[in-house]
Design a protein that fits this description.
Rossmann fold, eight-stranded mixed beta sheet, globular, about 450 residues
Length: about 450
């Protein structure tokens, strides 16, 4: 078990009539369920396993509840109050105050938008085999979703965001590409979504792959579906989410057969600027002061500017310089510590990260001649809407750029936009965002 909570659930029953309580942590992203009943205690992390986590000790004395799980280094001390329970939880070096309120039952994630069989669309497998520019053999496989009945349909090839993901772009029990494909099929639009190389049915070298190589994969799948009997090649476009939102126009800049581009949380700024904006926005969403958010951003800018192969000592020196004058609580609030040089070097000194930092849409967006739709959520903390949409418009003046009010990076309605919310939000894809995509494609 990695971490405990963002939505922690405490289930307490001191008699045969069990009671349930729910609490939320802002530090992590897992659900915890604790059930005390008949002089026994059980703890579950239902998003990870249906099996109980062993409780090494618990007690209830004078309205104070203590529970320990030594196998995962977890401890909580809670005091009964008028609303439920309040106190703290601790695991390893993490410690946080937390409150619990009554709930009806054991917490379960709901995904109400998830399509279930029998589906309202038809589908078939599409595959591509080719040799990439690094000389590696690549096999890609995906699913073409199309409306029931005969005919040829407008079609969009979907490209996932960063990190190796399956054809549904599955994350935290959400399947945004499946939900989007289901909706678009209901509107008369076909969708090809595919497993990234190294995931599911797709194979290919991953360790040294970068955004440009993934763009080759996207182009291969675009070509593979071009002649399909269900696809109108004159209305065939490419769309992507996050990193995929950068890849889609990269392909369109090369291939005149791409008839339209959809950028979902795609970048207009350089990779370096996107990362700086992201670091500031994420901590801002957590209530950190603007001054400290700027400290975080400036530190990360300098770290990302270090030459490849810089030593851990050089990374450490940058961190120390930027946290000079901050007290411990201030440095902790933006997660900058003197001993983080090794971890940040491992994160920033990879082939993919170096390539992404150097990536600038100015290289390809001005060369895109087909229609472009760019959607970004106003609460997106990973690709910040305002600066990126402004630069997309600057580089591609004909682009239709829209800010989607109240949506995060995953196009969910949200509270803060912090990534820790993604799992707990039941919505997978905001209906107004899907409608905007469908209306725009059908209006071309």
């Amino acid at each position: 078990m990695k971490k405990i909570a963002i939505a922690m659930m405490l289930c307490v029953g001191l008699t045969v009539h069990a009671q349930w309580f729910t609490g939320m942590s802002k530090q992590t992203g897992l659900v915890l369920c604790i059930h005390l009943k008949d002089s026994a205690a059980e703890i579950y992390s239902p998003l990870q396993s249906q099996d109980a986590i062993p409780v090494s000790g618990w007690s209830l004395r004078n309205d104070t509840l203590r529970i320990e799980c030594s196998s995962i280094g977890f401890k909580t001390v809670l005091t009964r109050d008028a609303d439920g329970w309040s106190g703290y939880w601790k695991q390893g070096f993490m410690k946080e105050n937390i409150s619990f309120v009554p709930a009806d039952t054991l917490y379960q994630l709901r995904r109400p938008q998830m399509p279930v069989a029998p589906y309202g669309f038809d589908e078939e497998t599409i595959a591509a085999d080719y040799t990439d520019s690094q000389g590696h053999a690549v096999h890609l496989e995906g699913t073409l979703t199309f409306p029931k009945g005969g005919g040829r349909y407008p079609c969009v090839v979907l490209v996932s965001g960063s990190g190796q993901q399956n054809r549904d772009e599955e994350i935290m029990q959400h399947k945004p590409f499946l939900v989007l494909a289901d909706y678009l099929a209901s509107r008369g639009i076909a969708v090809l979504r595919y497993d990234d190389r190294g995931v599911g049915a797709s194979t290919g070298e991953v360790e040294n792959a970068d955004t440009r190589l993934f763009a080759e994969d996207a182009e291969a799948m675009f070509n593979a579906v071009k002649g399909n009997r269900h696809v109108d090649a004159k209305r065939l476009g490419i769309g992507g989410h996050s990193e995929g939102g950068a890849i889609a126009p990269m392909v369109a800049a090369k291939d005149k057969d791409v008839r339209f581009v959809v950028m979902l949380a795609g970048q207009g700024c350089s990779g370096l600027e996107v990362m700086v904006q992201q670091n500031e926005a994420l901590f801002r969403s957590r209530g950190v002061s603007e001054r400290l958010c700027k400290v975080r951003g400036a530190c990360m800018r300098e770290l990302m500017g270090l030459p490849q192969g810089s030593t851990i000592k050089e990374y450490q020196a940058v961190i120390v310089r930027h946290i000079e004058g901050l007290d411990k609580s201030e440095a902790d609030s933006v997660e900058l510590k003197k001993g983080m040089g090794h971890a940040l070097k491992q994160q920033l000194d990879t082939r993919w990260m170096r390539s992404f930092i150097a990536l600038d849409p100015a290289e390809y967006l001005p060369r895109v001649k087909c229609p472009v739709l760019a959607l970004n959520g106003t609460k997106d903390c990973q690709v910040v809407a305002k600066p990126n949409l402004m630069r997309i418009k600057e580089l591609c003046p004909k682009a239709d750029c829209r800010r989607m009010e109240g949506l995060n990076h995953m196009f969910q309605h949200c509270s803060t936009g912090d990534a820790t919310e993604y799992m707990l939000i039941e919505e997978t894809f905001a209906p107004e965002a899907m409608k905007a995509v469908a209306d725009w494609i059908l209006g071309l």
